[in-house]
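Lecture 7 notes. Example A: sequence first, then its C-alpha cells.
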Amino acid sequence: MPFDFQGKRILILQDNPVAGAEIAIALSTANATVLGPCHDLGTAEMQVMHSELAILDVDVRGRRTFALADRLAVQNVPYVFFSATAGCRLPERFARIDCIARPSSPLVAVRRLELRSREAEPPTFPDLVPLLRQRACGILKDPLAADRLVERTLQLALEDSGTLPCQSGLLAWLHGLMDRALQVGRSQFLN
C-alpha cells in the first residue's frame, strides 16, 4: 500500500457519487477514517470540525465550496480540490492548493493529500536537532564547538521542560535556549 493515513479523519465532499466512492475506497485502503463522502455542502459543514484532512470538489450542486475550504484553512486542515470543474480555476487565495482535474484517478488526489499532510505536520523534537546544529554552525564556525552548543541547548531544554511550548513553537523555544546558552558563556564552547 503506497499511503498510510494512520486512522486520520478525512472529509470527502464530492457531488459525483462514483468519484466520491472511488476516493473513499482509496482512502479506506490507506487506513483513513473516511468522513463521507458528503454529497452536499450542509452535510460536509457538519463534518469540518471533525476533519484532519479533506478532499473537496470545487462545485457541488451548483454551489462553490470555497467558504468550506476557508473554514478548513482557518482550522489548519490540509486539503486538496478534486473536481470536474473545467480547468480548476480557483480564486487567488487558493493558489497554493492543489486542484486535480477529473478524469484523473482519485489516487492522484490521495497522493497530493498525503504530501500536503506531511508538509503540515509540525516537526518532532528529533527533527529539530539538525536544524539546531545548522544554526550553531552558523554562529560558531568550529563544528566541535557547534556540537557543544547544541548539547548545552538540549541540556537546557531538559532542565526547562516545564515551559515546553506546543510543537509548532519548539524551534523558536530551542533557539531562545541556544541564545541563553551563548549569553552565559560563549567561550566555553570554543576550542
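Example B, a different protein, same format:
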Amino acid sequence: MHSEKTIAIVDDDEGVRISLASLLRSFGYRVSTFGSATAFLESGAKPDCMVVDIQMPAMQGDELQARLIAEGRLIPMIFMTAFPTEAVRNRVLAAGGRAFLEKPADTDALVHEVERAVA
C-alpha cells in the first residue's frame, strides 16, 4: 500500500479528475484533485507526485511546471494531453517531467509512472 504518498491531479476536466482519483485510490494512494493550475497553487498542497493536464485555461500544465520550478518546488510531474506535440513533450521532459502520456492514458502506464515517481 502507498497510503503515505499523496498524488495531486490537476485537470480542468472533472470526469478525468474523478476517474484518475478513483484509479489511484484503488492502489492505496491519497489523492487531491484540482480543476486548475491556479487552484493547485492557491491550495498550498505539497504532494509527492502530480498528474497534470497540459491544456487548461488560464495556466497550462507546462506553465505550472515552470512556476513550481521557479519557486524551488521540485515535485515529480506526469503530464497528460489529448493534443501531444513533440515540442511540448521535449520541453516538459527537459525541465524534469517524469512522463508524457497521451489521453486517454493507458491505466497501467499511468500507475507505473506514478509508482516510479514516488519510489
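Note on Example B: The mean pLDDT is 95. The beta strands are 6-10, 30-34, 49-53, 77-81, 99-102.
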